[in-house]
Every structure is written in C-alpha cells, then in structure tokens.
C-alpha cells in the first residue's frame, strides 16, 4: 500500500493558476490559504483513454464545497476543463493518469485566519500523474482506528476539503499495525469509511454501504449504487455496526484513486474466504465497462 515513486512523474508539468511549470519549480505562496489554514477543496480525477470519468460530477462537488466555504472566486467548469486539457497535453498524457485538482481561497495579504484578508482571488492547482489504481486487487487489510469521522455539526464531510488530519492520524494507526488502511467509525460507533475510500459490505446477497452522515458523497460510490440498481443487485445505504462488518461475506472499497478493491481482513478477522468475492468481481467488471465508454473527452 506504500505508493512507490514513478520515474514517469519525475519531469511533470504542473498547472498553477494557468501557469504551466516543471514540477521542480512549482509552488504556491506561503500566504496561500491552503498553506496557512488548510483552507482548500479538492477532487481526484481519473483519465481513461482521453476521457475523465464523471468529470461533471466531480466539478459539481468541487463547486458545492467552495460555495459552502463562501469562496469569493470560483472558476467555471469550462475554465477548469480548459486548464485540464492544457495540463494533460503538456504532459503528453492519455491513459492511466490520476489528476489532483485543488482549489484554494487564494493568497492573503497578511497571515491570519479571517477570510476577509483574502483579496487576491482563488488559486487553482492541477497536478496530473501517471498512476494506475493504487490498491492491491487481490485484497487489502484494515485496522479499526481510534479516530472518528466528525459529524456534520463538527465538520460537515459534504465539504470535500483538504482538512484531512483525522484521515492522516487514522492512517498512522494503520501503518503502525501493519494494515493497508484504517477503518473509521463515526461518533455514534457506526462504520463511516476508510481513511481514504468508501466501503461496501455484502451479506446474504445484499450489499449495503454506510450513509453519508460522516463521510463524503463519493463519486465512485454513487457509480456503484447506480450499477447495482441497473443490474438488479440489491444495494442501499444503512448504518453498519462493527459486528456486521466483521461477519460480512464480502467487503470492498471504492474510490477514484483505487477504483474497486476487495477487503480481506478487518482488525485481524478474515472477511469471507479472504479473497475477492463474486459480487466484488462482478461490480469490478461492470465498472470497467462503464469507464471504458463514459466520460468527458479532454484529450483528442
């Protein structure tokens, strides 16, 4: 689960506010909100044969997050897509690419927390990397984290922000335990997600995923729910306890960076046959078919 450096990414061209520059020269101001306060929103995008899957949905989530944070300046979808095209063209990229799209409140004229000292407009960062799905398709292991996903009255997870300290603390726990990732609960004790992905549990032929009470509205998560409905697979949202997670016939995680990957162990407990199960295999195949045909064309 430790991502390795890809030599193809050594000489990347990065886009910051429309300026294309080599990776070694790219940087943002120490007065930028992302540096000072973690005040930024982001999206992870994946490029399939010149198309970005669910791009409109990702840009809608980015915009919703920026609006919720009262950003005074938000680029239009057309502006972002144009810069995505420029960045991918500059890097000669067409497939097997993950894009980290970050929008910050922009630079402050002095250090501080008050958003009123942000008067320079937003900062838009586009970082495209050669990166295949990062999760082991044969299965990953999870460690239950002591750190909880905050509820909406603490930090609404429907704001897809760069404030990811709870995830980092959970990941540190997983690393120390020798697990691939952490499973995080909400403050009520129900399963929320991992430190980086959404979760689905299969029991008795029925698939359930946690509600979004304490986790983001995942784009890949929504695609899986849609695929289940379209293919007659019983699937829905529910509050899921740890006991239900432990006894699941299958478990899998979903996300743009890792696509779909089976979970074979949770807190030392074997899940199912400790292998990719039939529902996970079927949905992985359906998802591959979907990404092979859908998306917004950004590379000719």
Structural overview:
The protein is an alpha+beta fold and 300 residues long. The protein has eight helices and 16 strands. It has helices spanning 33-37, 55-68, 77-91, 152-155, 165-177, 219-230, 242-246, 278-291; strands spanning 13-16, 19-22, 40-48, 51-52, 97-104, 123-130, 140-144, 181-185, 191-194, 198-203, 206-209, 235-237, 250-255, 259-266, 269-270, 296-297. Strand 13 (250-255) and strand 14 (259-266) form a beta hairpin. The protein starts with 12 loop residues before the first strand and ends with a strand.
List the SSEs and their pairings.
Elements: E1 13-16, E2 19-22, H1 33-37, E3 40-48, E4 51-52, H2 55-68, H3 77-91, E5 97-104, E6 123-130, E7 140-144, H4 152-155, H5 165-177, E8 181-185, E9 191-194, E10 198-203, E11 206-209, H6 219-230, E12 235-237, H7 242-246, E13 250-255, E14 259-266, E15 269-270, H8 278-291, E16 296-297
Parallel strand pairs: 7-8, 7-14, 11-12
Antiparallel strand pairs: 1-2, 1-6, 3-4, 3-5, 4-16, 5-6, 8-9, 10-11, 10-13, 13-14, 14-15
Whole-number count of domains: 2
Order of helices and strands: EEHEEHHEEEHHEEEEHEHEEEHE
Q: Given the C-alpha coordinates, what overall shape results?
A: globular
CATH topology of the largest domain: D-amino Acid Aminotransferase, Chain A, domain 2
User: What is Rg?
Assistant: 19 Å
pLDDT averaged over residues: 97
CATH architecture field of the largest domain: Alpha-Beta Barrel
Number of helices: 8
Broad CATH class of the largest domain: Alpha Beta
Write out the CATH superfamily name of the largest domain. Answer: D-amino Acid Aminotransferase, subunit A, domain 2
Largest beta sheet, briefly? 9 strands, mixed
Count of strand segments: 16
Poorly predicted parts: none
Q: Indicate the proportion of strand residues.
A: 25-35%
The percentage helix is 25-40%
Give the distance, in angstroms, between the N- and C-terminal Cα atoms: 33 Å
Helix/strand-derived category reads: alpha+beta
């Amino acid at each position: 689960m430790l991502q390795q450096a890809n030599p193809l990414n050594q000489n990347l061209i990065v886009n910051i506010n429309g300026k294309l520059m080599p990776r070694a020269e790219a940087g943002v101001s120490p007065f930028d909100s992302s540096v000072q306060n973690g005040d930024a929103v982001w999206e992870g995008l994946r490029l399939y044969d010149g198309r970005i899957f669910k791009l409109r949905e990702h840009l809608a989530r980015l915009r919703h997050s920026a609006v919720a944070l009262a950003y005074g300046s938000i680029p239009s979808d057309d502006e972002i897509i144009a810069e995505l095209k420029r960045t991918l063209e500059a890097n000669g990229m067409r497939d097997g690419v993950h894009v980290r799209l970050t929008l910050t409140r922009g630079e402050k004229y002095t250090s501080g927390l008050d958003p009123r000292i942000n008067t320079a407009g937003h900062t838009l960062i586009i970082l495209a990397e050669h990166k295949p799905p990062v999760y082991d398709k044969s299965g990953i292991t999870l460690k239950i984290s002591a750190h909880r996903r905050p509820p909406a009255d603490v930090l609404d997870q429907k704001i897809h922000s760069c404030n990811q300290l709870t995830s980092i603390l959970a990941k540190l726990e997983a690393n120390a335990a020798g697990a691939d990732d952490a499973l995080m609960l909400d403050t009520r004790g129900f399963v929320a997600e991992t430190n980086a992905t959404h979760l689905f549990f299969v029991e008795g032929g029925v698939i359930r995923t946690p509600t979004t009470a304490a986790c983001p509205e995942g784009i890949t998560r929504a695609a899986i729910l849609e695929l289940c409905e379209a293919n007659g697979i019983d699937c829905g949202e529910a509050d899921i306890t740890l006991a239900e997670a432990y006894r699941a016939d299958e478990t899998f995680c979903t996300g743009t960076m890792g696509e779909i990957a089976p979970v074979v162990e949770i807190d030392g407990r074997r899940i199912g046959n400790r292998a990719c199960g039939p529902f996970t295999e079927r949905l992985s195949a359906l998802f591959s078919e979907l990404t092979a045909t859908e998306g917004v064309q950004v590379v000719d």
